[in-house]
Design goal:
4 helices
Length: about 230
């Protein structure tokens, strides 16, 4: 199932900058066979629900699985999105807002789109990593053209999956591992180690506190490696 990869080893990760032409920031992110196109689009103004006197800008996210991204064709969500999609969009959005000072981007809305072109586990965590890089690229361009006066990014953020498969704690689960996992986790951290999300669910038997700490620690180690890869993009 894991072939030659160690339990605490990430899949091969690749970030391709400026993957699309029109978005202000874009990145193709690859975690093994999971591939996601992430883009950052910028609009002047803020969401209608925000108070006009609110000094903040906003960062939001949309997520989708393309029909041929999975082994059986999934339907396009044209008029109503599923609960799963809503959950993932909210996770991506709050993860990216957590690393941004919104008051430093007044009257600007940045939308991160994460479109999964091939799914093999960890699509939401890959979307957060690629989404952060697309956001960073967009912010750098806004600073260069004078649309932003200060850099709103506080520190990098990254995410990874982990879990217990065959009684072993494993990092960065692919689809086969995820579908057999006894415990499934998604972890989102800042570069300084602050926790944005630590969601862990037992799919069968309950698990121990010691295993929870082991899952967190292996995920933290993986996230530290991912953030180091950002510097190469």
């Amino acid at each position: 199932m894991r072939k030659n990869r160690k339990n605490d080893e990430l899949r091969e990760i690749k970030f391709t900058k400026d993957f699309t032409k029109h978005a202000l920031g874009s990145v193709l992110v690859e975690f093994g066979d999971t591939k996601v196109i992430t883009t950052a689009s910028v609009e002047e103004g803020k969401p209608k629900w925000m108070d006009k006197e609110d000094p903040r800008g906003w960062v939001t996210a949309e997520y989708s699985l393309l029909p041929s991204s999975t082994n059986t064709r999934c339907q396009r969500e044209r008029t109503k999105i599923s609960g799963r999609t809503q959950e993932i969009q909210r996770l991506i959005g709050r993860s990216l807002r957590a690393c941004v000072d919104l008051e430093k981007m007044p009257d600007i809305t940045i939308t991160i789109d994460a479109d999964v072109i091939q799914a093999d586990g960890g699509t939401r965590t890959a979307s957060i990593c690629g989404g952060f890089l697309a956001l960073k690229i967009a912010v750098e361009k806004l600073l260069k053209n004078g649309k932003l006066k200060e850099n709103p990014i506080i520190e990098p953020v990254a995410a990874i999956s982990a879990g217990i498969v065959e009684d072993e704690v494993r990092l960065d689960l692919n689809y086969e591992e995820d579908s057999h996992a006894r415990v499934d986790s998604n972890v989102v951290l800042t570069k300084s180690g602050k926790i944005i999300e630590f969601q862990t669910t037992a799919e069968g038997e309950p698990y121990t506190f010691d295993k929870m700490i082991e899952i967190f620690n292996v995920a933290k180690s993986g996230i530290e490696k991912i953030i180091k890869l950002y510097d190469l993009v």
